[in-house]
User: What shape does this take?
Amino acid sequence: MKTESVLEKILAAGHLAVTSECGPPRGAVPEKVKEKAEKLRGYVDAINVTDNQTAMVRMSSFAACLIIRQMGLHPILQMVTRDRNRLAMQSDILGAYSHGINTMLCLSGDHPCFGDHPMAANVYDLDSIQFIQMVKNMRDEGKFQGGDEILNPPKMFIGAAANPFADPFELRVARLAKKVKAGADFIQTQCIYDLPRFEKWMQGVRDRGLHEKIHILAGVTPFKSAGMAKYMKNKVPGMSVPDEMIKRMAGVPKDKQAEEGLSLCVETIQRLKEVKGVAGFHIMAIEWEEKVPEIVKRAGLHPRPGV
Amino acid sequence: MITAERKPIEEIMESIRPFNRILLVGCNECVTVCAAGGRKEVGLLSSALQMACMKEGKVLDVKEMTLERQCDPEYVEELVSAINQADAVLSMACGCGVQEVARRFKEKPVFPAVNTKFMGASERQGVWAERCQGCGDCVLGLTGGICPVARCSKRLLNGPCGGSTRGKCEINAEVDCAWQLIWDRLKALGLEKRYEDIMPAKDWRTSRDGGPRRIIREDLAS
Assistant: This one.
């Protein structure tokens, strides 16, 4: 084992891993973090904590991770290169690891223009691949990015994102290969609705044997309504939602759409279980955390294995 | 070249409000090419300011001059003959020119009449786009002649990010995805394999992050 990460243990034991996410509150309200995380207890192996997602200011991922860790749960520290230079990122990693946070997700982050501070400077000292390299070198070489030795190097289990639905499609397997080369241990994908395209991507991943070098957690997000499905299709960059899904959501009465969205999500997981190389699921129930236990149970992923 | 756009007339009027005699100085280099601050624009701004002042019942004395290069002390020296007849200088050069005038004439107020924008190229008549950030360590040889530092919204050296859609950037459908352009060009050059080489973290000391920069050429320096 490279780390003490529970997620690493679950994946190494060959279990299908389950992760979910928790967006920190837009205020100093630790109770909100506890409330969201508590709903996930016993149903997921680890909880991603987003880092100013969609470029909106929220409680820091590190602080919210700490709250979750103190509840005896396992947070995944998300960190974007948009807001911090390499000094700030490394110091936060040392701090997080000192508090028992041993799993992280390395991202570039949404551009500030999408958020509530479009006037902010965007940092991007590193990109996500250079970020992965930095965290790996901190762990395996015991060195800071600048080259100096680290006292008690942080041993992070390193996650990265992959979006099989962005363009150009022909680069999407190659970009995953770069993340593997950089040292990522696991991947959480963009929300999967377009199964044929995902399967085509996975075929490319398997052809290069990448699924044996990295654990791929398939991302899913349940639709709450037909409106949300349309929004995801039309407004979210790099997202592919087939028309049949939108039709199916719109085809049921409004008060039954949430239920239909959950069923669709469970069916997607069932289908993804059949895809060779899928090592688990990342369930992103946006502001709908209370439904994660139901999805996990209905998808046959409960109880979670003890490791 | 360095590109610029003229400031709104109201802002320029506000900056020169306390003064009656203005030396309006254009530049014959970049700002002429991008039609922001050359001889022609100096003439247009001069008339506009005089008319605007007339409406307010004030007579504005404007002396027009356009230097060969406002960022060059040799040409800025040409202002000596006119500077004493002016209460303030209004410069239509890029920020480099404005500062050179301010450096040479320490006791004369100098105001910019343009906003300096970026180093770019002309895409077509009347359209200029950013091409270079002056990072001080050019990577164009590795990226098919398209700069990810200047042209990727997140300046990713290992792109594209997950927001690239049909060749466009997630921030705006008018912006090309630099990494789509880089990939297309690598393919055209038969260099697809190069894509998987990881570009290491950049040393930003050669860029603005290392502090204000200078070039000293020992062979030329006096």
About this structure: The interface with chain A takes residues 153-167, 170-172, 177, 179-180, 183, 195-196, 198-201, 204 of chain B (CB under 8 Å). Residues 133-209 of chain B form one domain. Chain B has two domains: 2-118, 133-209. Strands of chain B lie at 2-6, 21-27, 61-67, 88-91, 110-112, 114-124, 127-132, 168-169, 172-176.
